[in-house]
Amino acid sequence: MVYAVVRSGGRQEKVEVGTIVTMDRVQADKSGTIELPAVLLVDGDKITADQASLAKVKVTATVLNDLRGPKIIIQKYKNKTGYKKRQGHRQELTRVQITGIK
User: b/e for 85-94, b at 16 or more Cβ within 10 A?
Assistant: First the structure.
C-alpha cells in the first residue's frame, strides 16, 4: 500500500494512485497535468518524512475539471444602527485524479 500526503494550497491531502481530490484552483500545463509537493510518503512499512528524500518524490495528477463550490452567504448586522451588509462567495476549485507516485 503506497500513499502520500501532499500539499495543495493551504491544506494537506492523503492520496493514492487513482484518488480523485477536489482542491483550490490550480493552473495545469497544456497537457493537463500538475505536480504536487509531497509532505510524507508511506511505502509499505517504510515511512519517509525528511526533506532530502521527499525532494526526489514526484506526485503527478491529471486535471479533470474546474468547478465552483457552494455559495456561502456572509451577513453582518448591528442592532439599532441600521447597519446591514450581505455578501456572497463561491470558491473556485479544481478536481484532479492522482496518476502516479514515484
Answer: eeeeeeeebb
